[in-house]
Batch of 2 targets.
Target 1
Amino acid sequence: MRPQVSLSGAHGSPTDRRLSALARHLADAHSAFSMDSQNANQTISPSPTAAFNGDSVFANVVRAPEDPILGVTVAYNKDTSPIKLNLGVGAYRTEEGKPLILNVVRRAEQMLVNDQSRVKEYLPIIGLADFNKLSAKLIFGADSPAIQENRVTTVQGLSGTGSLRVGAEFLAKHYHQRTIYIPQPTWGNHPKIFTIAGLSVKTYRYYDPSTRGLHFQGLLEDLGSAPTGAIVLLHACAHNPTGVDPTLEQWEQIRKLMRSKGLLPFFDSAYQGFASGSLDADAQAVRIFVADGGECLAAQSYAKNMGLYGERVGALSIVCRTADVASKVESQLKLVIRPMYSNPPIHGASIVATILKDRDMFHEWTIELKAMADRIITMRQKLFDALSSRGTPGDWSHIIKQIGMFTFTGLNTEQVAFMTKEYHIYMTSDGRISMAGLSSKTVPHLADAIHAAVTRIV
Ligand code: KET
């Protein structure tokens, strides 16, 4: 038995600290004899002496830069100008510039609060069963043969990011190919999520700055020369940051190429319903891959389409060849999740399940979702018109051609810095603006800023 020594004085007076160090020394001396060294090591802080001479044991920690997307909000919050405008993070705002809680979400929350039978017990490791089933149906379609044949395993995740991470960890552990191809450019967190999970990240050509459209030839060439079995990250719809998606015919060509080379599709679906306003239309790319009977992964997020950003609710589905494989895969997903965060939170998933399983609520959601998508489309037209009326040099038709939450403006880093400094407009340095953060009132201010930036800084 280890001696019962109190270390509670570690943060008290110098005498307390000395006594506590002595106690620790005695305890450690004891454990060296009575415990195996691995267990003993877990109970000792690595270098207690540094704390006693006044230096922090973390003194050599280097300050990290802010996140390229979330750091924009940090900078925006520090700005005291009344005209400041945050077009950085992809978060929906109303015409009044306020965050939006959907009516159907409020209604679902009220029902949950009023339901006295609800408890706050732990969910199973893979989350809320109803939520998982309904999420799979939402992305693959209610009549998907893969679901009917029990070939899909779905686990609840910590929004899109957490679901991608669980998928990445699973692949790094159990898939024979460790290389993942991500589009160039892509959401800034993708390379970090996959690298940290142990995958090796390569890029494929996606966007052509000269046409401001898809670099389809480059995409086919790069995936065509990828090693057999490589994983390929695909944005299910509303590609971030470019707002450029393949057409259905192009998706079909991508599918054929990938299947012929045994490349494994990993879909990131963070904007289902936001691109076209239709949940089914925005899931088409995923569904054509599932329809051929092949395997794939899909990470879903309810952050944007249900406005549940901070609730962190999403799902990871893995479509397998057989029900037997799917159930084995699920057993291994549990081993990935349990030591990471044990099990997911209950509230957000309950909101989603409440809405998805009720016909009326589901319908109400689709109407509110369409209204958000439509407001964004209106902002595109208004910004395009405002630049046209100012005679701003350049072709700005990509603003109305691109889809989803973002416009990839083509503005360079210097122009972005100028707009932030002179006009208090905040956006990511790659020239991406969140159209969802714009309103009729703020369009003229943005158009003035873009006009000034492109005429003064070439
Ligand atoms: N995938 C993509 C493509 C994506 O744009 C985001 C978020 C996510 C996944 C993850 O979202 P989650 O909140 O974990 O469900 N993008 C916006 C917010 C962010 O960067 O975190 C953005 O690009 O602004």
Note: The chain is about 45% helix and 10% strand.
Target 2
Amino acid sequence: MRLFLDTASIDDIRAAARFGVISGVTTNPSLLAKEGGVSYKQRILEIAEVIDGPISAECVTRTADELVAEARELASWHPNVVVKIPIDAEGLEAIHRCSREGIRINTTLIFNPNQALLAALAGATFLSPFVGRLDDVSYDGIELIRQCVDIMTIHGLKAQVLAASIRHPLHVTQAALAGAPVATIPPAVLYQLLKHPLTDTGIERFLADARTAGLIE
Ligand code: E4P
């Protein structure tokens, strides 16, 4: 399983990169809007200097023709750019056309397994089911991940399920156990994954005993 960082914050990406566990980045217009007016292209290029892996940049146009033109532009920024396209009829056509041109697509805003199946058949590289937003409306987001992974596996489809809209560490564990090959996680969740109170108290106890044993001052 791979972990991507779900942010447009270059500071958060630089801080997380030191761990060596982040192999890609996902952005969206909402994440970019928090970045105080930085140009999208500039930010994607900054990210590409830090992370050598897929960097998702999202389209904001609505017709298939516009999406294809926008996808070509986003993909021209850097070879690691993966273009995010929302799943609807216009999006599906654009996914098909872009995939034929060799533009890698991350299909976003997936909320049911049939949307994932269609995107995979159209040639998408990544499928992004939104776990947290589905949980928010009383459906089981992790069950959607499981269904998407099963469909890809049963039918030998190459698209990778990218668990998105991750809100807490349990989502990460559950997505991993559901077989998601990738999860994209907010920076705060990355640090939460590290934490356990018994680890903290264990470190304190070993340090105290090391002092008693004269190993450290
Ligand atoms: C990433 O690709 C998605 O855009 C992101 O995970 C959505 O997360 P949210 O539901 O917390 O906005």
Note: The chain has eleven helices and eight strands.
